Each structure stands twice: as C-alpha cells, then as structure tokens.
Automatic annotation (TrEMBL), chains A, B, C:
Compartments reported by the entry: Mitochondrion matrix
Identification of the protein by name: Enoyl-CoA delta isomerase 1, mitochondrial
GO cellular component, one term: mitochondrial matrix
InterPro entries (UniProt xref): ClpP/crotonase-like_dom_sf (IPR029045), Enoyl-CoA_hydra/iso (IPR001753)
Organism for this UniProt entry: Zootermopsis nevadensis (Dampwood termite)
Signal peptide from the UniProt entry: none
Taxonomic placement: Eukaryota, Metazoa, Ecdysozoa, Arthropoda, Hexapoda
Catalytic activity: (3Z)-decenoyl-CoA = (2E)-decenoyl-CoA; (3Z)-octenoyl-CoA = (2E)-octenoyl-CoA; (2E)-tetradecenoyl-CoA = (3Z)-tetradecenoyl-CoA; (3Z)-dodecenoyl-CoA = (2E)-dodecenoyl-CoA
Keyword annotations of the record: Acetylation, Fatty acid metabolism, Isomerase, Lipid metabolism, Mitochondrion, Transit peptide
C-alpha cells in the first residue's frame, strides 16, 4: 500500500474542498436547482437524480442547439452552480431527437454588434474553462449529430457515449473554410492521438459513430438516448466511489496545460475572433451562406 | 452549422493567401515549372498533372538519392516554387527502383570544408521547414528503402504510402552510432506515439512496410510505385475540396511547436552539427566506414 | 547510408562516455559489485551475468517491498554504481512471490520526523532521476502486484515484462484519496496515451496484466518470473548491439522534458510533499488506515 503527496493540493488557483456531498445536501440541491432553473432555464434543463446525485443537463434550444449567447450563458450558469454545489456528476445531452449541438450560432457572427460579439466569445471561453476544468465528473450523452462547437462541448467532458450508427461528430471547421482555435485543438488532442488529430483537423472530417469509436473520439456506442444516459450513469456511479478531491486534482493536473493556455491567452484569442468576424470577406461568406439557407 | 474564428489567421508569420488555383494558373504553372526544372533540375524532376494540379516530385540522384548539398538545394527550390505557385498538392517519390532515399550523404561530413558543411546543414534545415510547414498538402510515395534522412523526408509529408512488403523505413541513426536531432524526433512523434518513438529511436529500428503500417509510421501500403502514386493522388484529390487557406492554417497550427522550435534553435542546431563532424573520433569512424564500403 | 549530428552530444548536463564495456571490465564489475552489495545490500540484491554483462537487481524488503528510506537509498546506490560502471543493462525484479512493489511505505508519512521525511522524498526523487534517466537500458520484470510507487518504478524502466494473468498494476493513488505527483504522471504519459492516462489517473484504476498489455502499460506478458527474466534479457541483449553512447543520447533526448521538469521543481515538489503529510486530515486518515490494518 502506498501514499503520495499531491503537488496540486497547494496550488492557489484550484482550491480543494471536501469530497463528499451528503445525501441531504444533494436533496437540497435538487430542490434548489429545480426552482432555480425551472424559472429561468428555458434553454437548458437540469434534472437531478436523488439517489445518485447525478445531474442530467439537457440543451433545449431547438431545433439544433445552436450555441448562441443566451444558450451559452445558461450553460455557464448551470455549470457554475454544479461546481459550487459540489455535484456528484453531470450528463450533458440534447432535447433534439437528431442533433446534440450544431455548434456555434453563425448569427452571432453575422453583422455583429461589437458588445454582443465580445460577450458571445467570452462566454464560450468561460463555458469551456468551467466544463473542461470542472471538479465534478462529466459525460456527454451524444444523442445526435455533433459537429464543430457541438464536438468541442462533447470533447470537454471526461467521457463520451454516442448514439449510433447514423450520427456524425468532428471538428469540421476546415470544411467550412475556417480553423478551429488552439483550445479546440487541445480538447481534441486530449482525447485522440496527434496523428489522428492532424488528419481530422486538416480535412475537417466528420466521423460516424463507429469511426469515432475506432479512433477514440468517443468511448462507447449506445443504441438510443436512454441507453446513452444509462451508460453515462454507470461511468459516473463508478466515479462516486473515489475521493472527490483526489479525483478533481488528478483531472486538473492532466488538463493543466490547456486550461492555463486559455487563461493566459483569453484576450488575444478574443481579439482574433473579433478581428476575424469583422473581415469583409468573412461577412460576405456568411451572407452567401445564409442566402443559400433561405432558398432551401 | 457553425463558424469559428481562426487564431492563426492574424499571425504575421504565416501569411494566408487565396485558396483556389484556377485551371489556367495550373496550366501556366505546368508550363513554367517544366521549363524551369527541365533546364536546371538534374537531381529533382517535377511533373504537374494538368487535370488535378498535383505535382509529382521525383528525387533522381541515383543510385540511392543520398541527400547531398546539391540535391537538397534543388529540393528546396522545388518546394519554394510550389509554395509560391500555390500548388494543389505534391507527391514526393524516387527514380530509384529500390530506394526512396538512403538519407544524408556522409561524404558531406567526411573531411568537410567548413563553408560547405554549413551550407549543407542549413539547407537541410530549410528543406525541412519548407516541407514540414508547406501550405500545400504533401504525400510521400515511398517506393523503396527509406532509412534515416530518407525517413525524415517521408515523415515531413502529411501522408505516407509505402510499397510493400520488402522495404524498410525508420530513424535508424542509433544503429550507426549517432543520434537523430531533436527535430527529426519531433517529426516522428507527430506521427507515432511517444512510446513507439522512444523504442524506435533508442534501438534505431528499421520497420518493414507492414510493421510501419501497424504502428502508424505509414498510412497505406501499395503494391508498386504506380499504386503508391495512385493512392497518394486519391488523398490529395480529397484535400482539393477543402479551402486551401483553412487547411493550411489547421496544418500549421498542428505543426506550430516543432516549426517554432527549429526556427528558434537553428543556429544552435547548426553549431552542434559542425562541432559533431569536427570531432576526430567521428572522422575516424567515417574513415573506417568508407574503407569498409570500398572493400565491398 | 546516412549520418546525423547529435544535438545532445554537446549538452553539458549529460556527459557522454565510451560505449563499449569490455569483457574484462564486466568481470571486474561483477566481482566488485558482488563484494560491494553482498556486504551492505540487505534490501537490494545485485547479480551480474558474466556472459551478457546484464545485472539483475532484486528488491527484497519482504513481504511487499514497501519503498521506505532504506530501500530507496540502497536502490539509489545500486543505480548509481551501475551508471558509473557503464552497465550493459539492468533487470529490476522482486524477491516476493506475489508483489513487485507495493509502493511508498506509508509509515514514512505517518507521524513523520521532518528530517527523515525530507530524506525520504528527496531519495525518491533521486531514484527516479537515476532510473528514468539511466544511461544503460532497463527492464522491469514485474513478478507480482505493482500499485502506485511500484508502478512508478516499473514505468521508469524502458521496457516492462509482467507475469500474468493474476497481478495488477497502476497509479491507483486516487483510490487512496491522494494524487500522483506530476512526475508520476509524466512517467505514465511516456508509455500510454494522454487519453488512457487521464482515465487511469482520475479513476486510480489498477489494470490486470492483460488489460495493461492492451493499453501499452506493459510490453510483454510472461508465464512466471523465470520467463519474465528471460524476456527481459532478450530485450537487453538486442540493445547490446547498439552504440551505448548513441542509445543513451536518444533515450535522454526522448525523456528530456520530464527529467528537466523534476530537476527544476525538486524543491517545490518536496515542499508540497512535506506540507501534505503535515496536514492533520492526512495524519488522521493514515491513523484510521493503520488501525484498520491492525484489525485484519
């Protein structure tokens, strides 16, 4: 038997806290979160299982969960509450029968008001920092297509169960003529090999469920949403036997470099986004794209 | 549908340019490049496919494409022209029926004139920076043995198709009593896992085509050169549907660290090479090696 | 044929030395090491094969090779001697029939005297630096369970042969409510993928021999200890054909970043350990744990 010190335990940026959430505090959280989110939460639903303490967070900005400012703000608020309430674990899924999330809402970039564009990108950064660096364990139950920003959100969780075989997932930005920011790439390289990531990112490839499983982009295949949720719960229940503090510190240590990178480069990354969407060529491209959608 | 900014788009070091090469400009390039390289290019042949815009670059310093200063200079010139002319893609192959490239020419290191030795190593660095960091997609059609520097060149491409089953490939420097420089190692770790790279580099192992496929050192096996070229073309034609600018930025983002490393350490790396070949023990080793070759 | 310079050859921190150990010097080493270790070495046995020059180093602090200060000091001394005597290779194994090493001795952390605690952790750091950065090739012949610190020692070798199928191996610190320090994690990520490492470290999973083989945590499975030793010898004999200097430089280049990290962070890492074991909560946890052991 053995015992090691944790180099992270004394890091000021990640304050460790008690690991166990008592059954009472879970019940309290259930009551509070249901009150909280049922009133405000139009775009994100939270349901907490009283027995397990696991929260199921459902994106419900139909039809395709395009990530606009409001959806991101609600998602941030939910993630923040789960963090503060020392959640036992979260399953992230979608209310759409065919799409997990279609990614960033391009209307946030088309003829943007600068204040809103800044808020939009900053909130996306904050959602990622909260999700990728969450203390509690996270699983994406991917019950539909998950391109680009949808894939980013799934990659930021610790485990991915995806309904097969007809859906696709990937950072396909290149196919759209754009490039996934550095922290999108970090999220992918945290999960698949450098080789697979370079091929996937340069070609903007979308993977079928089976292909995604093969390269490790997802961890398990499910037959339907209920099966995906069940498999996600099984993963999280396994985690509940482990010290929450130790688990969190191990996770944050593994994810330290990407998290520190975005914290250090937040402003620069924002400026690049703002500069990008203010380019006439980009606006013209969006204009054409939106026109083509109208004709359909 | 989604849209992301590119943090790279504003990077001053990699100037983005237009993605599409029109059919006319391809034809123009064909004419120009054939004129250009048929006159000067004794060691490297370039043939451009008018339909696809893909260039086939053939090393033809027979018998084994030892990389000496002149071959590297011609290779650099070809890569530079392809870059400036916004190539649709390049296939790198060999005119030898059995050797892709035998690696660096040891005569460049034996009793070296210092000026030439400096030019030799600097040109090798520049070829790598051009090839590993090329804007256009690159495939190595490895139609023969590919040890050491030959393997480096193949690893610097984005995709590798190798004729099987009788050839070998690897960074086998250790077998020769020397060590692959850091950027050789980066090139290998961009393709295979850290674990496989450590084993391969410490043992200097040469892999058969099938072994190379198994660990991911190559991507596909071909039955002969024509098959290798056909498979390389298929990969590149697939790439041609993607925005050249986005593709390039995604590639350079994935390869940013190794490229920046060599740019920052070019002088130091050169000094180490010059210091190395000027060691009496190294010269004695080369002397013995060349003597042993004469006796064969 | 080709030849490359070694950027490492001129690094002041790793002094290259002659590669070949003559047969005489091996015999001399055998005699000397047997004299040296038979007198002092109660916790570590060293036996050198006269034909191959390979040393078999056996941890024999029974029953479970808990890594206390004295075992670590002897291990350090052995590794240091092998380094100075230019060993042809080392096999690390255990005298226990069921445990390779149970990891760090928790009695070193329970109600610690500060001087001894400092010596304990510093010696562990030094053992790792010596073993992970050894010039000579190293194989762990894992003939029993190998959790936590036991796994660290095995991971620090260059090759792992493990007796199957009934034993387990892993960095299971999280299961014990603690976190593997950064350099433990580096050792694991040098061998398995980032993805597998994150899952293994957050869950503190112990892998069976077959599971460990599947993810690459070990390289080969053996039927018993003799078979493990034979397979380890085969790996090392293969290494003996390679220039010792080139091999060493290739290894150290691959392991440069983790080694440099601990050298740079040695004090901070020690302070974190000391701070950790001096926490009342940690002492209380150890107290309960040791009480529970007594009752068994």
């Amino acid at each position: 038997m053995s015992l090691h010190c944790s180099w992270l335990l004394r890091q000021s940026c990640w304050k460790p806290y008690l690991s166990a959430v008592t059954f009472n505090s879970v019940r309290h959280f259930v009551a509070r979160s249901q009150r909280e989110f049922s009133s405000n939460g139009k775009l994100v639903d939270v349901a907490v299982n009283e027995n397990t303490g696991i929260s199921t967070v459902t994106m419900q900005r139909l039809p395709v969960n395009s990530l606009n400012l409001e959806l991101l703000q609600e998602l941030y608020s939910v993630l923040d509450t789960l963090e503060k309430d020392r959640s036992r674990g979260m399953i992230l899924t979608s209310a759409s029968p065919t799409v997990f999330s279609a990614g960033l809402d391009i209307l946030e970039m088309y003829k943007p008001k600068q204040d809103r564009a800044v808020a939009f990108w900053t909130t996306l950064q904050d959602v990622w920092l909260k999700l990728f660096g969450s203390s509690y364990p996270t699983v994406a139950a991917i019950n539909g297509h998950s391109p680009a920003g949808g894939c980013l959100v799934a990659l930021s969780c610790e485990y991915r169960v995806m309904v097969g075989p007809k859906y696709t997932i990937g950072l396909n930005e290149t196919q759209l003529g754009i490039v996934a920011p550095k922290w999108f790439q970090f999220s992918m390289k945290n999960v698949i090999s450098s080789r697979q990531a370079e091929l996937a990112l340069t070609t903007g490839r979308l993977f079928t469920t089976d292909e995604a499983l093969k390269i490790g982009l997802i961890d398990e295949v499910a037959t339907d949403k209920a099966d995906a949720i069940a498999k996600a719960e099984k993963f999280l229940v396994g985690m509940s036997k482990i010290s929450a503090t130790a688990r969190k510190l191990a996770k944050l240590s593994c994810r330290q470099e990407p998290l520190e990178w975005l914290v250090a480069n937040k402003k620069k990354d924002l400026q690049e986004f703002i500069g990008f969407i203010n380019q006439p060529a980009v606006q013209m491209g969006l204009d054409h794209y939106l026109e083509s959608l109208k004709k359909k």
